[in-house]
## 1
Amino acid sequence: MAEQYPSIAQCAVLATAFKVLLFPAYRSTDFEVHRNWLALTYSLPIKQWYYEETSEWTLDYPPGFAYFEWLLAQVAQFFDSNILEVENLGYDSWQAVYFQRTTVILAESLLIYALNCYVRSSPQSAKQTSYAAALSILLSPALLIIDHVHFQYNGFLYGILVLSLVCARKQSGHLSSGLMFALLLCFKHIYLYLAPAYFVYLLRVYCLGSMSRLSVHWGNSLKLGSGLVIIFGSIFGPFLYWRQLDQLLSRLFPFARGLCHAYWAPNIWSMYSFTDRVLLLVAPRLGFVIDQNAVNSVTRGLVGDTSFACLPSISPRTTFLLTLVSQMPSLVKLFPQPSWETFVGAVTLCGYSSFLFGWHVHEKAILLVVIPFSLLALKDRRYLGAFRPLAVAGHVSLFPLLFTAAEFPIKTVYTVFWLLLFLLVFDRLAPVPSRPRVFLLDRFSLLYITVSIPLIAYCSLVHQFVFGERYEFIPLMFTSSYSAIGVAGSWIGFLVVYFTS
């Protein structure tokens, strides 16, 4: 089959040129977060990294990412040494901005490489659909908004994840897949939510015999176990030696934060919060007991315990149990049927569970679902039917991250263009399934996408025109609740597809 045109590399060059034009664009507090991490990893001994509190944006990623920041800092000193002073809070010279944004683009090269590997490893019959899926990830509005405007390094991290998934495709790559995922956990601990799928898959295909599920490949188990010990030991070992693990873990898992983030991530708890807000209006008529301490709170989740006015409060233990229980069915199917597609499906469903039921979920965590699902979306039209509402909800839910007027055309025009282009292309490429499609899911997708148009118009334009600065929580609440319905509906649809395939 002829080489696809334009190639992924050519599209990456074009996308990079566009991203460079966004260097002067709005940047969130995450820009200062990473500048501070550059400074503290460069200026302080490793022993002090997880104790430093000069800035409120303390180091709360695993040591692997801290080492990554240290490497970047070695280069940063040649561009602007003031970046690396811990006391320079809020420092944002043009040299600092251009350097940090450039590092995001360069680090994203790993994702480009991983997507190339994904297309090359696909069967000949699936080259075209794999190419389309890879381009949809490379040109994703989510990565553009989160990494190249808002500011983070998700492209780099998801490059490791995609490469790990690609390695899992062949028997010779199972060990590499597991070790790369272990390395990913040392960079960002949010990927722990996907670990159950990796554990079951590698246990079944690498550590247990193919002839009997009870036989053990001791050699494989030893290689995987040794590799994990080396990776985690080398990265976390110094902190264990210095008896700093408790301090490190308190930074990685700050359960003192509330159930919901400042802007409700579109999950079950945003609908729970919305329901609580509605009940607050009708509580006097229904005779509900109201928690007066929660009445004046809109998000009830910035810092501290989350409280609700009418509904019972939710504990971290409750969210953990719900996440674990909702992940179990996909793992039960994965163990006896450890194909690559089933594995990626289980990874996707683990991502769904963590996003929908997790504690203090950020809206940006929707990438845990969107990116692995993108690799399966074109398997057939049933998968695509479940993917559509997720694609819309996942990207619309990120709009509040960019709230300045200058960035409005970027987020809306680019996202709408991406949705129209790739959903139409996906619709043409997705093969007809061997099983009947889910009629209700198709109708839900159509209705859901239709509603997104007036919603975006109201939240982005009409509300401010009518109300000005008043009731600013209403567009956020509408966006979050609408997106939560799409994510939850997509999850249910994918569960049906996953267990009937």
## 2
Amino acid sequence: MYRDFDKANPDQHKLEKQFSNLEEKVSQILRTVKARFEAGKPEIQLSREEKGKIRNFLFIMLYRNRTFHSRFNKSKEEYDADDRESMLRYMEEKGFSHPRDVWFANISAFMNAEIDINNYDPADSEAGMSKSMALKTKLESQAYPMDAMWFWKNLQASFLSFCTPSAADDEFLMTQNAYSVFEGPNNITYMDYHLFAPITPRLMVVSRSNVLQKPSSPEHRSVLETVSRGFNSMQGAGSCLEDLPVSEPENNYLIWSNGKKVLSPTKVSSDKHIFYFKFFELPSKHVQSINTVLLEEAIKTETLAYHSRVGLLRALEAYLREDTPDFRAPFFGQLRSATAEARVEWQDQRLIYLQTLERVAQSMGSQLPTRYT
């Protein structure tokens, strides 16, 4: 998918090699995380560079998914995304002949972004803010500005956490497209509340929007009000994981003073920043909410990996009985602009998918009746 078709470039697999290198580095980091978790340790320490590589990798995995392939793998004339006018104008300005070339250039820019240095914490100095804005300006000059802004926002307005089920019988399902799924409404551009990266059935990386950590803040209310315009209620604009019991990692360069974080008197250079990530134990309701999000987005996939039949059955039954008001409104948002034929086709596919999952659950002894709506 990422083959660089620029004939002037002798390396026809430049993007694949770049991504492969990033993937290998992140795999090494996650193997260390996994080993520490399985050794029963309460936390893992990561450098700023290591944290940055994980964040970069998660975003690119989302950005390279089937939806974006469908968006960009069209001719200029066929390009029909909501941003058609601005995309065609950008292609004209930059000399791109195919939307796919824009996608490739974006992925390359995101992979090469120096986020380990330029990402910053709000309590950092003005110099940190200056670096962040410099990164934003650089990204917008190298990538399509709308998508560059999304990438930059994802870096600046979210944090990583490592989660594990507290119940022995619970597990995270490993759906085929888990790394390409975000939780959040689809009626507003790039409003991802959570990204997911299963490491094992008992350990998952969850990237969480900062706005959800401050439920009483004006920023949180403003986001919900903006998103809710496409739904019947504020609940539909919210997150099914709004009360996820995680928090930002502590670090070695900020200290608490008068109820807020400030820079430590002992200066620590950014290359020596250390972040202390706890392994958060999640109650069953949160584990199954995550599994439900993953299953809802796995309709067009072909495989699903799991560790135990008990864990799979618990996840399937939680998904099949899900009836929270407005839960699926965010997922249906992407169909609002689709043709009537496309909506019917998707509903037909979904019915077959639900019936398949129901049969799998019944084969393991489930007596849960499924309601099709």
